[in-house]
């Protein structure tokens, strides 16, 4: 019932910026766009122009010095270019903002620079070198969508790759100050169209400011039509005048007029949050909240720190649909997000390895599916590419008989050790125990533990996997437990080594610490945690089916490939009926059924009633077997929503993850 995915741009690689480099008499170079025949900045006075037009034009030094809100100050920009404006805004924030303040930067870019070009351009400003390096090392792949970068502990940058008007129309968030930049209207008229200004107005907070270098009539007329008050102010250098102004009363957000149930609850940034469940969903959420200065109590029946070395490995991978849909978009965004997140969290790679992932096509049906997928999704080859059996064998380090999709930048992860690291984030306090009661009150929530202890919190996040539905408030969510068993084999000396995680019916990553993990079984509805020899046999059979030459080489090396000689780990995951996670505010199910009862008779009769939720109660669950690709992004989504920040996903994808989506679907279908 959310926005059809046809309204989103195709999943494809964006065209990179085409540059020429102008050289001055000193041999120094300045980038020029060959597409728009315009420079990105003047090497001699480009930074001074940025300071005058955008920093002073939005009165940022004074406003940042006076900033006392618990949410971040948010700056939006049209046209990221080389990032000079954003780096200058960051420097201004560091120079003027109070110690407890935070800054959130948003910038759109239709033609992203290549990483090497970005580094070359920013080398013009040595005093920005440290900031530039933080940007360059996280520079994302040229894929349309939202890419979140963590510039430092207080500064976040969301790069929205794609057409500026389109990206701002999809933005879920509000802006305090706009940098209206880009190539000149005469050079790039397609950007400076009325839709851009309408989207800016709709994404503005009351009183939001803007500044721009141009005084073109088309810009003044479009600003006024969108509701901005503009005025001419002195320009920089040879530009006698520029524009600055504000919007006093932004228009109402009408994007959810046909899906009012997804209207977000009012933001109330919390001071203390209790997170139930310390797996990857709960631990990543706790860390995301703590990074924002929120006190977090993380509660779980099990203390993963007591388990010691488990040798368990999980794969960071996705399986994308042939035809673009909201689920595939969400998982691709999650894959790219998790990869950057892991690199930031653990640059030493003690908890993960960027091995890449191969998805084998073992039969004609899968080969056809993969071929159609590649035809429909011309993504960068650094994200996904098709390989024949010979090329797949070369990257896997073992003979393979089937072609494959290769995700070169995917990875394997030590999931338990990762959760322990996240739980140790400053600001997170771990409490071992079982939550048996959850009650809301005027000041927040009270959690009752099995031993009788009570914990008070402003807000609560339920992230307890298959046990997430054992509370009255969440019991109506359809959630299926899925038992899975992974087998582990101690490798002898001389055993063959994989160079990639290889997936087919199961998965097998490169060995870690001399132990090979492979599996996992799939037991819908099962919750038994005991290890089964039959499951080891099934995992061995699946391993041999997908990698027969690898198994033969293991036997030749003396590996003991019999079910009774294997060890393993058993876990119970949780899955939703549509296989997408639940992430967002927890709906009041009975209220939704009452408020939207007319949908059962006529799905076109949509009541003008915003969705009612359990105030301050959130959920991140149903991550299934792809939790490494979804849970960290969902953690950022929840933390951003709770803290009144722009979200790291487009609004249709946010609605796709909403925990109330099944209630509406069941009403429409008469269930």
From TrEMBL:
Record's keyword annotation contains Transmembrane: no
Catalytic activity reported: 5-aminomethyl-2-thiouridine(34) in tRNA + S-adenosyl-L-methionine = 5-methylaminomethyl-2-thiouridine(34) in tRNA + S-adenosyl-L-homocysteine + H(+)
Database matches in SUPFAM superfamilies: FAD-linked reductases, C-terminal domain (SSF54373), FAD/NAD(P)-binding domain (SSF51905)
Domain of life: Bacteria
Known EC number: 2.1.1.61, 1.5.-.-
Region of interest (tRNA (mnm(5)s(2)U34)-methyltransferase), ranges: 1-248
Domain MnmC-like methyltransferase: 127-246
Chain spans, region FAD-dependent cmnm(5)s(2)U34 oxidoreductase: 276-671
Sorted UniProt keywords: Cytoplasm, FAD, Flavoprotein, Methyltransferase, Multifunctional enzyme, Oxidoreductase, S-adenosyl-L-methionine, Transferase, tRNA processing
Compartment(s) of residence: Cytoplasm
Cofactor(s) the protein needs: FAD
HAMAP family: MnmC
NCBIfam families associated with the record: MnmC_Cterm, PRK01747.1-2, tRNA_MNMC2
Function: Catalyzes the last two steps in the biosynthesis of 5-methylaminomethyl-2-thiouridine (mnm(5)s(2)U) at the wobble position (U34) in tRNA. Catalyzes the FAD-dependent demodification of cmnm(5)s(2)U34 to nm(5)s(2)U34, followed by the transfer of a methyl group from S-adenosyl-L-methionine to nm(5)s(2)U34, to form mnm(5)s(2)U34.
UniProt family annotation: In the N-terminal section; belongs to the methyltransferase superfamily. tRNA (mnm(5)s(2)U34)-methyltransferase family. In the C-terminal section; belongs to the DAO family.
Protein known as: tRNA 5-methylaminomethyl-2-thiouridine biosynthesis bifunctional protein MnmC
């Amino acid at each position: 019932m959310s926005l059809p995915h046809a309204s989103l741009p195709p999943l494809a690689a964006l065209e990179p910026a085409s540059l020429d480099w102008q050289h001055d008499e000193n041999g120094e170079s300045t980038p020029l766009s060959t597409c728009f025949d315009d420079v990105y900045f003047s090497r001699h006075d480009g930074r001074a122009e940025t300071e005058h037009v955008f920093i002073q034009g939005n009165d940022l030094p004074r406003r940042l010095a006076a900033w006392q809100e618990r949410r971040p100050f948010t700056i939006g920009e049209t046209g990221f270019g080389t990032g000079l404006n954003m780096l200058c805004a960051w420097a201004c924030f560091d120079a003027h903002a109070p110690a407890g303040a935070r800054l959130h930067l948003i910038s759109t870019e239709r033609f992203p620079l290549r990483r090497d070009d970005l580094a070359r351009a920013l080398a013009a400003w040595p005093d920005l070198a440290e900031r530039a390096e933080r940007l360059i090392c996280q520079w994302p792949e040229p894929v349309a969508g939202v890419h979140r970068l963590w510039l430092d502990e207080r500064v976040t940058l969301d790069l929205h790759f794609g057409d500026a008007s389109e990206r701002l129309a999809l933005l879920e968030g509000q802006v305090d100050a706009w940098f209206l930049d880009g190539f000149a209207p005469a050079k790039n008229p397609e950007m400076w169209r009325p839709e851009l200004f309408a989207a800016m107005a709709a994404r503005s907070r009351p009183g939001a400011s803007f500044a721009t270098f141009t005084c073109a009539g088309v810009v003044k007329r479009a600003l006024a039509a969108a509701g901005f008050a503009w005025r001419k102010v002195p320009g920089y250098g040879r530009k006698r005048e520029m524009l600055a102004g504000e919007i006093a009363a932004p228009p109402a957000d009408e994007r959810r007029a046909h899906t009012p149930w997804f209207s977000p609850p009012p933001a109330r940034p919390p001071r203390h949050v209790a997170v139930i469940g310390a797996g990857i969903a709960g631990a990543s959420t706790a860390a995301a909240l703590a990074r924002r200065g929120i006190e977090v109590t993380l509660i779980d029946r099990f203390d993963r720190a007591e388990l010691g070395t488990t040798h368990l490995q999980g794969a960071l991978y996705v399986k994308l649909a042939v035809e673009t849909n909201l689920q595939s978009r969400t998982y691709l965004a999650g894959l790219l997000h998790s990869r950057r997140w892991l690199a930031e969290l653990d640059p030493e790679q003690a908890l993960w390895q960027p091995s890449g992932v191969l998805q084998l096509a073992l039969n004609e049906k899968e080969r056809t599916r993969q071929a159609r997928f590649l035809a429909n999704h011309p993504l960068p080859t650094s994200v996904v590419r098709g390989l024949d059996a010979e090329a797949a064998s070369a990257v896997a380090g073992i003979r393979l008989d089937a072609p494959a999709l290769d995700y070169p930048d995917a990875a394997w992860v030590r999931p338990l050790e990762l959760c322990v690291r996240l739980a140790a984030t400053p600001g997170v306090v771990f409490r071992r125990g079982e939550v048996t009661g959850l009650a809301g009150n005027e000041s927040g929530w009270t959690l009752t533990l099995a031993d009788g202890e009570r914990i008070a919190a402003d807000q609560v996040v339920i992230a307890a996997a298959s046990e997430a539905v054992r509370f009255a408030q969440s019991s109506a969510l359809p959630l299926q437990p899925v038992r899975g068993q992974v087998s582990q084999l101690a490798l002898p000396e001389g055993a063959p080594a994989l160079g990639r995680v290889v997936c087919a019916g199961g998965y097998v990553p490169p060995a870690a610490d001399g132990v090979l993990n492979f599996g996992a079984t799939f037991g819908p509805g099962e919750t038994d945690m005991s290890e089964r020899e039959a499951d080891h046999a099934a995992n061995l059979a699946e391993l041999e089916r997908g990698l027969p030459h690898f198994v033969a080489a293991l036997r030749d090396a003396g590996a003991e490939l019999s079910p009774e000689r294997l060890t393993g780990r058993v876990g119970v995951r949780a899955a939703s009926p549509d296989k997408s996670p639940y992430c967002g505010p927890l709906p009041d199910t009975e209220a939704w059924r009452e408020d939207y009862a007319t949908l059962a008779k006529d799905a076109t009769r949509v009541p003008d009633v915003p969705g009612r939720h359990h105030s301050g109660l959130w959920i991140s669950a149903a991550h299934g077997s792809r939790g490494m690709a979804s849970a960290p992004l969902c953690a950022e989504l929840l933390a951003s929503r709770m803290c009144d920040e722009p979200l790291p996903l487009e609004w249709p994808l946010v609605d796709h993850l909403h925990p109330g989506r099944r209630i509406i679907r069941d009403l429409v279908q008469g269930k």
